[in-house]
Amino acid sequence: MSLLTSVDTRLSRVDDFSALFDAALHEFLANRPDVAPELAAELREMVRAGGKRMRPRFAWEGWRAAGGGGDEDVVVRALVALELLQCCALVHDDVMDRSTVRRGRPTVHEVFMMRHRRSRWAGSARQYGDSAAVLVGDLALAWADDALVTAGLSGAALQRAWVPWQAMRVEMMAGQHLDLLGVARREESLEQALRVAALKTAAYTVERPLHLGAALADAGPDVVACLREFGRDVGVAFQLRDDLIGVFGDPAVTGKPVGEDLREGKRTALMALALSRATNGSAAVLRRALAGPVNDALVERVCGLLVEIGAVDAVEEHIDVLVTSGLAALDRTALDPEAKRELVKLAGKATVRKA
């Protein structure tokens, strides 16, 4: 008996999607050939280190909201692809941002860099670490495709799923590039920051996973449209919440240093709003923080300014507007009532104010 089939997968008895999904995920990882053992081992470690499994969960509820149908085991196996795509994005993102911690452990490029130094290998340890991490991210993307294609979907279901899957991968990369451009060009536009949020986060975190789930259920265009609208709004709200956490988050909860986004010079909607409201003096402080380097004293000063000039309150208000708009989209067509309730709960968990 497989790990997946040992879990009760009947919808009426599923109380914990994460347990069901993790069984499928670990079964998939256990069956991967170790052609590149060091890369595969690090990818497996990253998966086991945690993660919210948000993307598979939104896809699952999208499938249920559209009426479900088909083999539930197969659907869960297909959704493994989403978590592996997330690992690809995180590994590459950490290299670009020079992040040193992810999920409470050293980032992948740091792990390989330290291994190079301990072993006294030839060449640059940093270059080796970055290069190996790029390959781990590439492996995650290859395995993501494998998970979707080998899940056991019918030809018609796979063809339907391929449309959002293909779009999601490209949108994720486009959003990441816009993020890089924002830093390089010293962008201060709120419109540009929200565009990055829509592509880099909303599309591949909420909108496209919902679209993928609906496609697996062979949903009609009205259902797909309302789920995608909900996903866009809630996804951007989620990124705005993440912007706040990236500055004010507790390292014990986030697994990252306090003020991580400031230390990385990220041009977020929070910073764009702050700059649009700042006086000349406070704007100079904010721009100095974005330009780096940043120490703890500067992080503390910027945090105070963000509150003082009303940028934090403005972001909170925008989150509320987006969540309200997204929830209204769910009322525009008939959806499975239980799944709809779960989507409302997920929207709340993804965007709620953190103490």
UniProtKB/TrEMBL annotation:
Signal peptide: none
Keyword Transferase: yes
Database matches in SUPFAM superfamilies: Terpenoid synthases
Top-rank taxon, per record: Bacteria
Endoplasmic reticulum is among the record's keywords: no
Gene3D superfamilies cross-referenced by the UniProt entry: Farnesyl Diphosphate Synthase
Entry's Gene Ontology BP terms: isoprenoid biosynthetic process
Cofactor: Mg(2+)
Keyword terms, alphabetized: Magnesium, Metal-binding, Transferase
A Gene Ontology molecular function term of the record: prenyltransferase activity
Family: Belongs to the FPP/GGPP synthase family.
Name of the protein in its database record: Geranylgeranyl pyrophosphate synthase
Organism: Lentzea guizhouensis
